[in-house]
Amino acid sequence: MIWLNHKAAFTRIRVMDRGLQWANLGILATLALVPWPTAVIAVTARTGNLADERVAVALYALVGALLCSAWLLFFSYLARHPDLTHEDVDDSYFAHERPRALIGVALYLAAGVLGVAVHPLVASIVFLLLPAFYGFTSHGHDEGPRLFSSSRR
Predict the structure, then answer these.
(1) Nearby residues of 14 by Cβ (< 8 Å), 6 or more positions away
(2) Which of 80, 86, 102, 138 is the most buried (most CB within 10 A)?
(3) Cβ–Cβ contacts within 10 Å for residue 126, how many?
(4) Is residue 146 part of a domain?
(5) Left if phi > 0, otherwise alpha if psi is -120 to 50, otherwise beta: which for 144?
(6) What is the domain range of residue 21?
(7) 58 within domain boundaries
């Protein structure tokens, strides 16, 4: 899903500057962290130690929130620099994408809290639903989901 979102964003970008390169690097760097808490969850799920599972989902939630925060910075940068996008992209496009990132930050953090306070399974369900949300919204607010479209966007 992250690749779909990345591709959808970059089809709208005409040119990159140093600030956008740094914002993009933030996404890629936090993305590189994702296998670590994923592995921690897998290991703790096999041990059956509920305390360890709670810590694992909290770690995953933190990394997920960091990744969504990186997207928020990326969208915010592009919203402030519409000259970097193609002419046919509405100047408010990336400003309207920021809520998707904020939803991710909020839901990852809420899942982490629920996973610690209630049960790790609750967090895991949210973790599974979030990629579906981002998959269905990966083409942005102006297009909606395109599951079977032949469009190149």
Answers:
(1) 84, 85, 86, 87
(2) 138
(3) 19
(4) no
(5) left
(6) 2-136
(7) yes
Q: Which residue has the tokens 């046919």?
A: 88
DSSP label of 84? G
Fill in the DSSP letter of residue 91.
T
Element counts in the chain: helices (H) and strands (E): 6, 0
- 100 phi, psi to nearest 5 deg: -60, -40
Q: What is the pLDDT of residue 144?
A: 47
Tell me the C-alpha distance between 39 and 8, whole Å: 28
- Give bridge partners of residue 85 from the DSSP assignment: 13
Model-level pTM? 0.88
Segments in the chain below pLDDT 70? 139-153
Examine residue 148 and state whether it is found in any structural domain, yes or no.
no
Measured distance CA(79)–CA(34) in Å, rounded: 26
pLDDT of res. 139: 65
- Across the chain, mean pLDDT equals 90
Please tell me the predicted confidence (pLDDT) of residue 34: 97
Phi, psi values for residue 85, rounded to 5°: -100, 165
Residue 72 tokens, joined? 């928020």
Total Cβ atoms within 10 A of residue 50? 11
